[in-house]
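User: I'm preparing a small set of examples for a lab meeting where we compare how different chains pack in three dimensions. I only have the primary sequence for this one, and I'd like the structure in token form so I can line it up with the others. Please keep the answer compact; I'll paste it straight into my notes.
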Amino acid sequence: YNLGNYLPFHREIYEISRQAPGVCILHDFVMQHFFAAYFLEHLGQPQRYVELMGRHYGEAGRRAAEASIARRGPPLWETDAVMEFPLFEPAIQGAYGVITHAEFFRQRVEAVFAGPVARLHLPYIPPPATEIPPRRALGLDEERVLAVTVGHVNRNKRVRAVLEALAKHGDLRSRVLYAVLGPPEPGYERELRELMARWGLEQCIRLLGYVEDRLLAAYLHHADFCINLRFPVTEGASASLAEQMLLGKPVIVARVGCYAELPEDCVVKVSATAGREELAEALRRLIFDPAARQAIGARAKEFAETHFQPRHYVQGLLEFAREVRSAKPLLKLADGLASELARLGIDEAVDRQTGLVEHLARECARLFGAGE
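Assistant: Understood. Below is the structure token output for the 372-residue chain.
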């Protein structure tokens, strides 16, 4: 079951996984938006959302859910606080195995999930090759270094931070063309355009909005480097990053989440909330040093060709399936015991008095050779 954070794409997958448990492949670390939309909009049952948050995050989760429903301030899923309540846990409840695409995420899952967990690098298949128009056909100045950001343009892409760095440093502003491709949030686009006008950046920034695949491919082909910043990082991997690295592009990333796990020598890392001076230093390195761009891009491509190949993913998936098959009987036993205890009304208070759960756990360990 491939599960992500967008309800229209993943609702039916999630619902089937409740009926027939299997292996869950988690694409997003933050599933808060999915479950908020599922209970508040799809089912119209806000109390179940509150109960879910309380079950996984205690009183703090319950209060955050109640405040979001009551609209006391911005809802949780529109703030950075969403990282404290990612809500991936209910997506894997009852699963027989979980696959993530980042080590940090694997560790978070292992802390709350008793079954097999694996980290596999996200595979990426490049789109079919298309005819690439020359730079001049795109109106690109040959004297300027082309930097590109792609994807939905929202605040966590940190485009404003890049604009601030360029506004502060005239030497960078005069040498780079920064192209941002992807559908923007309307309010954020207005903010960016107002800043561009105020800071005199119209000559070095292009906010292109949604573009067709052919134009996107052309900008990525001609890009001298890419900027792929995220904060907060809600996903478990990045297909756009894989594509850029496979194209041999040096990429500026934040040292956080899945991006922090990349080798230091095949990307340019900045801190998660890098300010204009730190960003300016990273930009200066790539704008004024063609040799560095070439070397970093070559190492990026080598890493990507080694780790983002579909055949490696398939091999890892099949090996994991064998592990899951071995663990499945024990997981089914554990789920069955838990259901029976719930049916009998054995809650935490009763267990504290009787020690029944610990007794059952020890007996299962004895029966199946797991030791004490």
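A couple of notes for your slides: The two ends are 34 Å apart (CA to CA). The mean pLDDT is 92.

User: Perfect, thanks.
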